[in-house]
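Exercise 7. Predict the joint structure of the components listed below.
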Amino acid sequence: MARKIKLRIWRGSAKEGSLHDVEVDANEGEVVLDVIHRVQATKINDLAVRWNCKAGKCGSCSMEINGKPRLACMTQMANFEEGETITITPLRAFPVIKDLVTDVSFNYQKAMEVPAFEPPADLKPGQARMAQVDVDRSQEFRKCIECFLCQDTCHVIRDHEENKKKFAGPRFFIRLAELDMHPLDILRNRKKTAQEEHGLGMCNITKCCTEVCPEHIRITDNAIIPMKERVVDVKYDPVRWLGSKIRRREEIS
Amino acid sequence: MALTTGVFSSGRAELQERTLRTDRWWLQPLITVLVLLSFVVYATFRAFEGKNYFAEPLISPFYSPCLSTECVDGASLIGQPFGKIVLFGLTLSPALFILVFPLGFRLTCYYYRKAYYRSFWQSPPACAVAEPHKKYTGETRAPLILQNGHRWFFYIGLLFNILLTIDAVLAFRDAEKHWGHMSVGTLVLLANATLLWLYSASCHTCRHTIGGRLKNFSKHPVRYKAWTVVSKLNHYHPNFAWVSLFGVAFADLYVRLVAAGTITNFYFF
Ligand code: SF4
Ligand code: SF4
Ligand code: FES
Ligand code: FES
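Solution:
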């Protein structure tokens, strides 16, 4: 059965914008993205919204719903109370292009700054052999759909525009961790550069990235904190440092 | 406060609200502040009190090991290397000689960091709620860069766990030091020691040291196994952090009540 829904949708550009009230029907079983599409079809025909899969797998429909960074296609209308006004805004950490669409190119820039996977030079194609237990940890991070909800929520850049230069963000900390934990990656100094160039030390492990990740990747516990500990090994632990000078260790610093 | 950075930066969606969250996001940080403050107030009072911390065979975890010559008879398990120290006319209580270690352990704990950064420092108070600070450098410079020393407090914490476990074992005696007895106090000290071990075992540094730092688990099957166990415990680290904190406070309170004669330590046998 259809019910009437009250929405407040943000409309505007990088220069100005505001919230607009709209009323629209919602049917049983629908998600927020369905309702936005109905607004587009029946009320505001030029409303800009980005989406693709409607299955929580492409990461396009990231927006903020009642102030929380979420995927619109994975947010059930049934979550909201009868008569509740639902506020929908674009991601608030990135510049607006139009209406609900933001410019997330910051993230692509940061992606390029992470040095790629580097296998041993003599490893021929098809010859890589790895034990499953050695790649389990890295595989958790491959579930990432690049929705950038974690990047949007992270207060380091959400609340401090000026930090964007020196902070890669949680999505790229899991990338760094994935590579640093990968059994066949031999690039040196990943830990050191994580701290010195990608801004790992700016993270204060307050876990908002983990809270919003739609793939339930345990970003803070399984990537950031282990990376922080690895950084301590190579940068702030004199005993480890000495040990690594005296005998060659298995790890690559 | 007129911030022009963060969510109010030019180019971002123009909105006046620091958050549009409609749930009670302030509740969690508020509870954290209240609970941690109550603990700090109680612990400070007890650390300075300097009495009612020992009632043969029970010793309060705030005062163990008791290292100063001010310690009451029988309370010092590993000697009394420190003499009487008077500061500003106040004799330092034996608790103050050791306080820095458990305090430092908890202050640098990854979980407590999250808890107090959010609740006390409001950085951020909750997810997608703008923080009130103009500048933010995280843990990149002094003093917060010292958080990287957590592992040293972890190692010292293990020594404390051993001593507090010995205290619990010694509590299988009666007030005349005869073995083979058990009282409510024995259980209290045992529970406290167990919770502290769980807190340490679930620590992120423990997880890293025991196996997390390896690149190839397959070459270290024993450490891998240990890592999987610690990882499971690690999932509950926040729970252990709170329960063990209450455990310490409760064990201290129990010993205080017994030592002050307010209650008698009931012996099962
Ligand atoms: S845990 Fe770190 S990376 Fe994740 S949101 Fe918080 S500050 Fe950002
Ligand atoms: S880590 Fe999670 S929240 Fe971040 S981009 Fe990937 S899927 Fe999205
Ligand atoms: S439309 Fe693909 S994740 Fe929502
Ligand atoms: S004690 Fe909490 S992380 Fe180490």
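Discussion. The pocket of iron/sulfur cluster (ligand 2) is lined by residues A 59, 144-150, 171, 174, 212-215, 217, 219 (CB under 6 Å).
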